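Narrative progress, year one. The postdoctoral researcher (J.K.) led the effort to move from monomer predictions toward full complexes, under supervision of the PI. The following entry was the first complex the group processed end to end, covering 228 residues in total.
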Amino acid sequence: RKEVEQDPGPFNVPEGATVAFNCTYSNSASQSFFWYRQDCRKEPKLLMSVYSSGNEDGRFTAQLNRASQYISLLIRDSKLSDSATYLCAVPGGGAQKLVFGQGTRLTINP
Amino acid sequence: GAVVSQHPSRVICKSGTSVKIECRSLDFQATTMFWYRQFPKQSLMLMATSNEGSKATYEQGVEKDKFLINHASLTLSTLTVTSAHPEDSSFYICSARETGYAYNSPLHFGNGTRLTVT
């Protein structure tokens, strides 16, 4: 099993819709999780950190399910500008590094 | 705060030449920096962990003699792609975590370097 797995999508949803996607992780001892947003040909930018059961920031909500070892990202009232690839990251191997999932491609359609 | 600057942002070189990429933390100190590589439509793959004042730690399958890493100060790490070949063409991104922050804190990324080897 990969350390971090995501559904690559693509997810195509209409503007204003709510969309959610998951990220599964293999290390049950993981304590922190991150969602990054990456635009085409750009570097990842931190969207949200999750250290407990979840986090919410405006239209974005991240929820952690430790029993099933996944974190989800929910986007409400989606905007055209939300179109991007969303990367899930988890600290790996007991070291300082972050392991990334392959990313979920999201396109918001007008 | 927590700005990471990477230079150059884009480079085209001929096969067989070497390319140096710089990664600087502008407003914080970083004992450790990380070099990732990303091929089109794929995720970020960690190449190596760069440690200030000591040798870098390379991930399995990454040739340390081909990808030379130097972390000479608390704000600068460099990656040199030696004898570059077309298959080395990729998006190289550095990242850093501010010294003193726990391993479970997020990384700050540079703007990346798009390398094209002809």
